[in-house]
Amino acid sequence: MFCNQCEQTFRQTACVNSPGVCGKDADVQSLQETLLYGLKGMAAYAHHARRMGKYDDRVSAFIEEALFATMTNVNFDVESLLQYCLKCGEMNLRVMELLDEGHVETFGRPAPTKVKEGMQAGPGILVTGHDLVDLWNLLQQVEGTDIKVYTHGEMLPAHMYPKLRDHPNLAGHYGGAWQNQKKEFAVFPGPVVGTTNCVLIPPESYKGRLFTMRATAVPGGQCLLDDDFTPVIEEARKCEPCKEEILGESTIGFHRSVLLDQAQTIVDAVKAGKISHFFVIGGCDGAEKGRNYFTEYAQSTPADSFILTLGCGKFRIRDHDFGEHLGLPRLMDMGQCNDAYGAIAVAVALAKAFDCGVNDLPLTLVISWFEQKAVAVLLTLLSLGVKGITLGPAAPAFVSPNVFKILQERFDLRLTGDDPQGDLRVAMGA
């Protein structure tokens, strides 16, 4: 345990033994940190939703109460703190619902679409992160010019919304996951706008061309505190134009509404034995070399199954060809990590259609956790009673062995192993 949140610590530095001076032990510390990280993730989702006029005062009230529960000498009870974590997951579901509503109401009903990947000739601006409102504001301000706007990373799903997709200045998508941005941003000749998290401290090669928004800021970059993109547009005029380099195209846009429209068809296909299983493979991507578990897992899934993916975790698997089944691509990109609500909504709807619980569906969740938003989503799944989730590639360091044991006993939470094919056989009951 390491706790330095009050003055009366061991030797006035920090309590490194369990229990600490106040009596808090490592399991209490673990759940307090889990709650804090979940709250941070939920606050990020809530911030995005509020920018589109979507908010719920009950969520704000819970954030205040839950933060209070993590203060010194307030809550020493493991079960109580575990319930706060689950309540955080419940509230996060509401926040993600609001965010989903905001996106659809603001930018239109999503639809599957093909997206050109690479660059077109002419001045260009690259937008990364998650904030679709920032992307829209930029598009409006370059409208009528020859400046082309490209999405990067988690901005890829922006193309599934008609209001964004149909804008004449949205030219396509460039690049992959966040951990490749130092290489990719150095090659892209124009300015780059980082709207949210997943931005890295820039090297000299492009820090003069990197702009960030509001709370997002990096040394050497230029932080814009309002919605005026004039400095970005001026920089695009000064930079070298992009050269034509189209690398291909990809199909994205399997939003929850698209899949729910096909719910009865999916149910009938499962009952007829035409679909063996559904896999949700997602989370946040990582930079470690050799981290191929999720790729190998996806490649081992049977040909009569479907893979739903979202977040930047899809960049582990989206470059592989999984073919089609029943006239649909086996790999379906549901959107950003902000769209995790969609995967949950589809699972709940299918369970209702089958008149069973979510845990009775031919559905397996294989997810990585990387940062606070992923923690919030995990807590949401646990709050819904979802069992058998495979989490990896390593257990969160802030979850103590005893707390992880509780989660295993109550929710059958599993860690990824060294054998993805073996884990897949277990998931399918083989």
Descriptive terms for the model:
six-stranded parallel beta sheet, alpha/beta, globular, 14 helices, 430 residues
Helix fraction by DSSP (H/I, runs of at least 4) = 25-40%
The parts where pLDDT drops under 50 for at least 5 residues are: none
Instruction: Describe the sheet with the most strands.
Output: 6 strands, parallel
What is the H/E string?
HHHEEHEHEHEEEHEHHEHEEEEHEHEHEH
Question: How is this structure best summarized?
Answer:
With 430 residues, this protein is an alpha/beta fold.
Task: Tell me what you see in this structure.
There is one protein chain. The chain has 430 residues and is α/β, with parallel strands linked by helices. Helix content is 39%, strand content 16%. The protein contains 14 helices and 16 strands. The chain has helices spanning 26-50, 57-69, 78-107, 132-142, 162-165, 181-187, 230-238, 256-261, 263-271, 293-300, 340-354, 372-383, 401-411, 420-427, and strands at residues 113-119, 124-128, 148-151, 170-173, 192-194, 210-213, 222-224, 245-252, 277-282, 305-309, 324-325, 328-329, 331-333, 363-368, 390-392, 414-415. The strands form four sheets. Strands 4-3-2-5-6-7 form a six-stranded parallel β-sheet. Helix 1 (26-50) packs antiparallel against helix 2, helix 2 runs antiparallel to helix 3 and helix 10 packs across helix 14. It is globular, with a radius of gyration of 22 Å.
